[in-house]
Specification:
By secondary structure, the protein is mainly beta. Strands 1, 2, 3, 4, 5, 6, 7, 8, 9, 10 and 11 form an eleven-stranded antiparallel beta sheet that branches. Strand 2 and strand 3 form a beta hairpin.
Length: 227
């Protein structure tokens, strides 16, 4: 709730240079171009480390907020360990700049996840025990509207999370991840869009956790505009 309140306050207090509107009302879920005031999008994606569904709301054309729930079969933090769990997050985008075909937005995504200890870095004895994590990723997203149907995106994220496996003594700790994004969004019609997002990077965590520190996420999905 504090993160949501902060984002709403930032949207209201943004300086004059950041008041430009998105360059187009074409749908975009993941890049720097936010969707229009009052729009509602639904989306779903499959990939690594799981699959998810999302509902996006647009209180204004500059601020978008989503509710996302997902099923995990791998760690969304770092490493390539497998495990079963779930994740809930609240992705947000605040449009900062738009000119010609380029849009830039700040992003924030508070999240919580739970499941097998392998998802939060446990190896060996406690990999199957219950583990959880809570944190947020924040960064910038850029969108380039290369044609009427296609938007390419990029960006950078920093993720900070506290993670714990209660059965493992002294297992609590902070993990930090750094990632770069590559995004493609393709409109099939005004109301339907296909998308792909790849995130790759590197993470830091207490030495006893995670077999490696690679950050990897892949999502392939479809989004629909309602109304």
């Amino acid at each position: 709730m504090r993160a949501l309140a902060f984002a709403l306050l930032l949207a209201a207090a943004a300086p004059a240079w950041a008041q430009s509107r998105p360059t187009s009302d074409d749908m975009s879920l993941l890049t720097g171009r936010t969707v229009g005031n009052g729009d509602v999008l639904v989306a779903a994606a499959l990939g690594w480390p799981g699959f998810w569904a999302e509902v996006l709301f647009a209180p204004s054309s500059r601020f978008n907020l989503s509710l996302r729930g997902g099923v995990l079969y791998g760690s969304p933090l770092m490493g390539l360990a497998t495990g079963v769990g779930g994740e809930f997050s609240v992705p947000m985008r605040l449009h900062l700049y738009g000119a010609r075909d380029i849009d830039v937005a700040a992003s924030l995504r508070p999240f919580a996840l739970f499941g097998e200890g392998a998802l939060v870095g446990q190896r060996g004895t406690f990999a199957d025990n219950f583990g959880w994590a809570a944190g947020a990723d924040a960064g910038l997203r850029i969108g380039l509207h290369v044609s009427d149907a296609v938007t390419l995106g990029t960006g950078a994220l920093v993720c900070v999370a506290y993670l714990d496996t209660p059965d493992a003594d002294g297992s609590g700790g902070v993990a930090v991840g750094f990632g770069a994004l590559a995004i493609v969004e393709a409109l099939m019609s005004r109301r339907t869009m296909l998308f792909a997002q790849l995130e790759g990077g590197y993470g830091l965590a207490p030495g006893r956790l995670f077999a490696n520190q690679a950050v990897l996420s892949v999502s392939l999905g479809v989004a629909f505009r309602l109304g």
